[in-house]
Amino acid sequence: MASEQPGFWARVQRASVERLHIRLESLVVLLALSTAMALLSPYFLSLSNFLNILLATSTIGVLAIAATFVIGSGGLDLSLGSVMGLAGVAGAFVAVNLGWPSVLTVIACILAGGIAGYINGQLVTRAFVPAFIVTLGMLGLARGLALVISQGRAIYGLPPETVYIGQGRPFGIPMPVIIFVVTAIVAHAVLAYTRFGRHTLALGDSEGAARAAGIRVEHHRRIIYTLSGALAGLAGLLFTARVNAGDPTAGINYELTAITAAIIGGTNLFGGRASILGTMIGALIMGVLQNGLTLLAVQSYYQQMAIGAVLILAVFIDQYQVRKESRV
Amino acid sequence: MISRFLKINRFTLAVGVALAFSAVGAKAEDGEYGVLMKTLANPFWGAMAQGVADGAKEAGVKYFQQAAESDQAAEPQLNLCNTMLERKPVAMITAAINSTNLLPCLKSAQDAGIKIVDLDNNLDQAVLDKEGVKVTFHIGSDNIAAGAQGAEYLANKLGKDAKGPVLVIEGLSGNITGEKRAKGFADKLKELAPGLEIVASLPGDWDRGKAASIATDTLTAHPDLVAIFCANDGMALGAVESVYAAGKGPQVTIIGVDGNVDAVKSIKEGRLNASVAQLPYLVGKQAVENVKKALAGEKVEESIAVPTLVLTKDVIDAGKEPMLQYVK
Description:
Chain A is mostly helical. Chain A contains 14 helices and two strands; from the N terminus they run ααααααβαααααβααα.
């Protein structure tokens, strides 16, 4: 086998896996889905709709980046959506109730998220509480705190500079899309090409081996959870700026959608294998599905079913590939 | 070499496919109305959707409808709204989840010359003015009046000198509809029967289960509870179950708002005492009729209040009230 030239498909696949760290199947699914939507709805293929899809994907996309790092390292963060809500409320509180300048809104959002993430990391690595429980607890804690700070109601009326982060359109491109794409590119580079990224995946592959290789496992984990929280904070900022209100109910169940995007994109739920580009494709598959079905005036209940079906299908294809590879 | 060529080509292909389809071009159907609801999981919105459907049929207009997956999916609803604009409707009839989440989309709609209708008074005029969004008309029930009618019913039933603790279960925190109903009830009750003291006013988040728990807890603290006013029927029905489970069925008067099918059934069975029917069916129907008028250049009132009706076993059994035909 080894002396033979690999087939065409195998070579394309290997190139995509090696260079871009993605599973080609997910890209094929995305293209097929887009083609189908374009054929079914005359409204689908337009620049403004393309930007719509990216805009709708941006908050979830940023959370999905966080999920990819955490899951890739063999962890789990169920608090993403709640932390996002808390961060948005913290930012709006600073801007509206305290009247502080806009730049502090940005810092407050990311800091609030980062602190929540740091606490998650400390509890996971020092208190030996499983990540599932720690972040499930943080899910409730962060949501509750968001409701306390905001007195249960949205804090409306941010300064124009902050609103610009969510609603501005330099060169006609929505700001959240720009922030999302830049974040994704940086995250992809970090995960795929830096030592930090390699260590993250090594941790997810085998914590024991990573430790034996001299990686400061606990320290690294804390950084990843803090990063995850900070990214949730960034998502909170995007959301808050977009709707011009710190909404304590923002991001309910978003963590599940973010994790779904990562899994569809080929991230191994048990760690060791992850790619930001793959996750972005996963997020876009869901975005295209939702957008296309909305354009076709299909009810949202069916949209949720479709996304569930795609998730199962994606993992099925993934497992099928893994098994095929292990047989060779 | 071939593989390198093909690698580049994957993306060229994707772009090519996209370009090919963009040539198809979008053609808007004439005069289509976009209808954006909250979740249809609530019979209230179901009845309104029915009213929209019947109204559109009678008026001979085309419409397409979408709904968010839950009462709290503020950002997903905004995404839906943006996507719906791609179909280039002539009017957007919207029931926003809160007073701010749809604003960016409504601004775009306004810029595109699309008429905006506020279904069920979810938009706040002060916020709209601040954002420079002009709504063609608001249509819905007067929620303060609905709450007040609930208080009138209670004062009539128990007498003006009645004494005892009363529980109010509010809607989702920050939701203006629930707030108005609760406030309308509290203010009127104070005026009509000051002996009836509101001992707790808690958010039930429009959730049947949560309302049931609140009712149980309050009964523990106040075993002599005389009445419960809930900001919607779903929560009232939850409270009814708790009250009967506690063996205090006839002692506690329970009032809901909406007049939905489940509530009517419960009233007929003698469990729920009353529901202030909002006649959502009529709201949906009149919304479509008035949009058609506005599009034809006729003058339409800026705020259209659809009447409410207190449903009790007597009213339903007698069947003489002409508005009963709109209770769906």
